[in-house]
Design goal:
The complex is a heterodimer of chains A (283) and B (306). Chain A contains eleven helices and seven strands. Chain A has 283 residues and is α/β, with parallel strands linked by helices. Chain A has a single domain, classed as 3-Layer(aba) Sandwich (Rossmann fold), CATH 3.40.50. Chain A has a five-stranded parallel β-sheet with strand order 1-2-3-7-6, sandwiched between helices. In chain A, helix 1 packs across helix 4 and helix 1 packs antiparallel against helix 11. The two termini of chain A are 35 Å apart. The N terminus of chain A is likely disordered. In chain B, the strands form two sheets. Chain B has a seven-stranded mixed β-sheet, sandwiched between helices. Chain B has a five-stranded mixed β-sheet with strand order 7-9-8-11-12, sandwiched between helices. In chain B, helix 7 links the parallel strand 5 and strand 6. In chain B, helix 1 packs parallel to helix 7, helix 3 runs parallel beside helix 5 and helix 8 packs across helix 12. Chain B starts with a helix and ends with a helix. Classes of the chains: A alpha/beta (283), B alpha/beta (306). The interface between A and B is medium-sized, with 32 and 29 residues.
Chain lengths: 283, 306
């Protein structure tokens, strides 16, 4: 990765990010009208985080291609990634229109081999391990040649219950993976209820990651500027874990923190209402 | 067997910077230790964390590396099964999962350490190649093939090993060819077909039958998947009797596959298969003694052959 710029960007336009995120949410609503189910709320939950990564943090080479890597560990949030890849011209719009149909390439979880998708996910607890491997590979490739590509990954907070996640939480600081940034989309929901109520003694999480050797920071996950600053102001020398507090379904009030919207697609009336809310409520 | 593997890997790694090893708390003795000393950035010990071992290998491969995950077979394949399936097979990545002590090689360690259905499980996954050398020489030849594969052919491999100290039994055999049966000797009456460490027992069965005046083929099947179906069909058609000796569960391995082929091809030979039992057998003796409890021994096979 010799073509990677040596430092991170130092500027992030939060207003532009808000406008993008509103458009991304609208696009997902449009797609929702062609399928019976899709993961709207999990995508809305991580929208600002993923926009900050793609729109602010990930560096490009002279040809305009991303040199840093994004891996959506919470595969069910991939609608957020799809609409961004579409905006960057990496995923053809026609494929978004064929989402979850027989002739399309895009399913409800990201598939390796599709444009812009770094790894196949969907089963929880796989992303962080693969991200660790990627970060090692990039560090090895860059040895003596400059700064390695960075690996960004977004996990769900339910995913933190997977034992495999902790195996990789253990490994990343041992390997001193300075080029790895993990963000936990902490919307406090999993299928059967609130994550914090599933394992009350497990919280707060930040001290756990810190104890395992991660540089750890907590931010408002809907403040893309805060996510950006968490990465650019890090001390470095070890992996960074960002605990991003979020709201599942963020942006459309009637979907916010309501479990049914994990998977359901809105009907025509709900779609209309959701669009109106998106237009009138600031992100 | 595993030492010859490590020798080949070390030599290949000198030239090929993509080769790396991820172990799960396995002592890197012999050539493996040399690899670790000379290529520390390409040797990772995850500790006792096998899901992470496979996930990290997947991540390495997704960024262009050719990793080898290396530990005891049960922990290389069973513990992280879903990671092998999703991360390696679904994504069709060039990662080799090396299972030491495939079958019931670790006889005294008990059922938790018996990989007696590893070939069945590995073979059941799409994209997975299953290779099982019978001796150190074949282990080296197979490893050479793995590291030399061109990009287009490089998917996941389950490489099933015994342990250290197996004798070489393939002197004089035709060379290893990927995806093909390997004749160790050719005869006309009986064919004894096997793979892996238990091929040594199959050789003794062949010797005993030859001593009785039979003309015997001894045939290795180091590529268990993809199986040389044509080669097996030909073997079934050209011998009056075919014996399959397999250190694996009775379902989903070579023995059942040969029966499928025999049915499909309307083979008329006398076909007998000898595998591990579909049982957890409690026996803490030698490998051979445990195999015997499963019904795999030279006298038991000879008695069944009649």
């Amino acid at each position: 990765m010799t073509s990677a710029p040596r430092s991170l960007p130092n500027d992030f336009d939060v207003e532009a990010s808000k406008a993008r995120c509103r458009a991304y949410r609208r696009r997902i609503l449009d797609i929702s009208q062609r399928v019976s189910a899709l993961h709207i709320a999990p995508a809305y939950s991580c929208m600002e985080i993923v926009d900050c990564i793609y729109g602010g943090l990930m560096r490009k080479n002279a040809k305009g291609e991303f040199v840093d890597i994004f891996l959506m560990s919470k595969g069910h949030g991939c609608m957020a990634q799809y609409v961004m890849l579409e905006a960057f011209g990496i995923l053809p719009s026609a494929e978004l229109d064929r989402y979850c149909t027989r002739d399309g390439i895009l399913g409800a979880h990201p598939d390796f081999g599709n444009p812009g998708i770094a790894a196949a996910t969907g089963s929880l607890g796989h992303g962080l391990g693969m991200a660790v491997g990627m970060a090692v590979a990039e560090r090895n490739k860059a040895k003596g040649k400059g700064e390695p590509a960075r690996v960004y990954t977004v996990l769900s907070d339910g995913e933190v219950q997977e034992g495999s996640t902790w195996e990789s939480v253990l490994m990343a600081p041992t390997l001193a993976l300075d080029n790895l940034v993990a963000v936990i989309d902490s919307n406090d929901f999993q299928s059967l209820g609130r994550t914090s109520e599933t394992h009350p003694p497990f919280y707060p999480l930040a001290p756990k990651f810190a104890a395992f050797g991660w540089e750890t920071v907590e931010v408002n996950g809907h403040d893309a500027g805060a996510v950006f600053r968490a990465v650019t102001s890090r001390k470095g020398g070890r992996p960074l874990m960002i605990l991003a507090k979020t709201v599942k379904g963020r942006g459309v009030r009637f979907m916010e923190s309501v479990p049914i919207w994990h998977y359901r697609a809105p009907n025509a009336q709900e779609y209309k209402t959701a669009l109106e809310i998106l237009e009138t409520v600031a992100s | 067997m595993r030492n010859r593997f490590a020798e080949v890997i070390y030599k290949a790694a000198v030239k090929d910077e993509r080769i790396c090893i991820v172990v799960a708390d396995i002592s890197p003795a012999g050539p493996m230790a040399r690899f670790r000393e000379e290529f520390p950035e390409r040797f990772i010990n995850v500790g006792v964390a096998e899901q992470s071992m496979i996930g990290i290998c997947a991540g390495l491969a997704l960024r262009g590396m050719r990793p080898f995950a290396y530990t005891i077979a049960t922990f290389a394949l069973y513990r992280p099964y879903e990671f092998v399936r999703d991360d390696l097979c679904y994504q069709n990545l060039p990662v080799t999962v090396v299972g030491i002590g495939g079958g019931v090689v670790y006889s005294t360690l008990g059922g938790t350490h018996y990989a007696q259905e590893d070939v069945t499980i590995a073979s059941s996954m799409p994209n997975m190649t299953v290779l099982a050398p019978c001796d150190p020489n074949e282990s080296a030849a197979i490893t050479d093939w793995i590291v030399g594969r061109p990009e287009g052919q490089a998917g996941p491999v389950y490489l099933r090993f015994g342990k250290a100290g197996e004798p070489d039994i393939t002197q004089g055999a035709e060379p290893f060819r990927f995806g093909k049966l390997r004749y160790l000797r050719r005869g006309k009456d009986v064919a004894v077909l096997s793979y892996g460490v238990v091929l040594g027992m199959a050789a003794k069965v062949a010797d005993a039958l030859q001593a009785k005046g039979k003309s015997v083929s001894l045939v290795g099947c180091p590529t268990v998947k993809p199986l040389d179906r044509e080669g097996i069909a030909e073997l079934l058609m050209t011998h009056a009797q075919v014996l399959v000796v397999e250190e694996n569960a009775p379902a989903g391995g070579l023995a059942s596959a040969v029966k499928e082929i025999a049915w499909d091809r309307r083979a008329t030979c006398d076909l007998k298969t000898f595998t591990l039992k579909d049982q957890f057998v409690h026996c803490y003796g030698s490998h051979d003694e445990l195999l015997a409890k499963h019904g795999l021994s030279v006298p038991a096979i000879l008695a069944a052959v009649g």
